Amino acid sequence: MKITIDVNVNTPELSAAIVNLTAVLRKQTVEQPGCDQSVTKPELQIRTSTEPNPVPTYTLEQVRAKLAALSQAGKQAQVKKIITDYDVKKLTDIPAEKYAEIMKTAETI
User: Quick one: which of 99, 67, 104, 71 has its CA closest to 86?
Assistant: First the structure.
């Protein structure tokens, strides 16, 4: 039996842990009760990639919903600061390519 798992991570420590786990699993054998022989565990292949994850894309509606939720939670001043940091008066004046930055900032509030 062959198991293949594709993992795309940009965390070197996690990649190293997965590689180490793979090495251990490849060396292990399992004793089967009632059998005269040991059975080697199936080979596990894990391919990892350290390519950076693409920046998620957001729509105006998603950004607006996130900022509205923050405003309703009493964080109106922080929401206003997020918008004014882009030298605009309203959210719709911010270019769509900046939405990911806004969402990242909003997550920290």
Answer: 99
